[in-house]
Design brief:
Blueprint: H1 2-21, E1 24-29, H2 42-62, E2 66-73, H3 84-91, H4 103-114, E3 122-125
Parallel strand pairs: 1-2, 2-3
Helix pairs in contact: 1-2
Pfam family, one: adh_short_C2
GO molecular function, one term: oxidoreductase activity
Organism: Draconibacterium halophilum
Amino acid sequence: MQLDVNLKAPFFLIRDFANYFKAGNIINFVDTRITSNASNFAAYSISKKALWDLTKMAALEFAPDIRINAIAPGVTLPPEDEDEDYLEKLAQGIPMKKPGGVEPILKSLNYILENDHLTGQLLFADGGENLGKNL
């Protein structure tokens, strides 16, 4: 299921976008987990690692007409059954010590769209979570 949603679907969407539109931008959402090999949520993590590799391969294949990049958000939204306190607690384990919310993701999107020299790049919008545990 995770591979279907996080790898196969983006693969087909990238292919079809390239065939039908011929030019533009594609921005994939990967996860900070791609920087580690933590075994919890293994299917999810491997699907996001594979999506990052697909992003780089497709960026190379479809350049210069289609730019393909990725964003790795961090602590953004709580699960359905949790509230903002849950995010605050999670954020204590990252360098910035605060949840990012949606704003860093939107700023990352704007940066990618406005910089026409970016392709095959990954922006971490994660408050430094990708750097590892802040002890």
